[in-house]
Automatic annotation (TrEMBL):
The chain crosses the membrane at residues 57-83, 95-117, 123-143, 155-176, 220-244. It comes from Natronococcus amylolyticus DSM 10524. Keywords: Membrane, Transmembrane, Transmembrane helix. This is Uncharacterized protein.
Length: 248
């Protein structure tokens, strides 16, 4: 049993080492020729010869190694995202955009019906509003995915899928005052952290404060604005995963 465990650990670490090596080779290939595989069939793999070339080559390599501290965890996220996206895309292929939309309507409509039977009118309105937003975003994501192409998936399909997850609670809180403390107040606190943190670079926070007020529909706009960059980040993660482990 212990031997089998050690072999399993060795296999996992071996796969990680292979993934990291592929990422680093891809990084080196951005700047230097003949880095992938064995390089040129006749000339072989390119290696630096002069001192200047060595400084540039190894400096670029060290920079890439540091970047792997971020790139490899992102690649792991990309592998997981690609796996589940492929399963969802398989469902979308079988059902079509209309079928996926109908399934979303059925699921969220059923939830709204249950809420109507068991909850107060305000809660029913919240569920209905969330249902409408989630169904619309799901339909947009499925439609963009059907168009095909990685660029469309990265630019639109992934962001709309995240919108379907992030926006419904916000819309529900906008139409139901009792949910403000649960959804809108934490959203406001999160916005303050963003403005005082990463958005403070270059004075972007002052620009946003001068031109926008976080109230009403602005909460929904904020989460849509968050969903799109997160979707693009997932797309980048999937691209890294495809570089390391090309999908069949």
């Amino acid at each position: 049993m212990a031997t089998r465990t050690r072999r399993g650990d060795a296999g996992i670490f071996g796969e990680i080492a292979t993934d990291v090596r592929r990422l680093h080779v891809g990084w080196m290939a951005l700047r230097f020729p003949r880095q992938r595989g064995r390089g040129h069939a006749v000339m072989g793999r390119w290696t630096p010869e002069t001192t200047s070339q060595q400084l540039r080559y190894y400096g670029w390599g060290v920079l890439g190694a540091l970047g792997l501290l971020v790139a490899y965890p992102l690649t792991v996220i990309g592998l997981a995202t690609r796996y589940y996206a492929a399963r969802l895309d398989s469902t979308r292929t079988r059902l079509g955009v209309a079928g996926v939309t109908g399934l979303a309507v059925l699921a969220w409509g059923g939830l709204t019906a249950v809420a109507h039977l068991q909850l107060e009118p305000d809660a029913v309105l919240a569920v209905a509003a969330a249902s409408a937003v989630a169904t619309g975003a799901t339909a947009l994501s499925a439609g963009c995915s059907r168009v095909g192409g990685r660029s469309v998936s990265v630019l639109l399909a992934y962001p709309f899928a995240l919108t379907a997850l992030l926006l419904p609670p916000v819309v529900a809180a906008l139409v139901t005052p009792s949910l403000e403390g649960v959804v809108l107040e934490p959203s406001y606190a999160f916005a303050v952290q963003l403005l005082e943190g990463p958005l403070a670079v270059g004075g972007l926070n002052e620009l946003l404060r001068a031109n926008f007020e976080l109230a009403g529909a602005a909460y929904a706009a904020m989460w849509v604005a968050i969903a799109f960059p997160l979707g693009w980040l997932l797309g980048l993660a999937v691209a890294l995963a495809n570089l390391v482990r090309p999908s069949s």
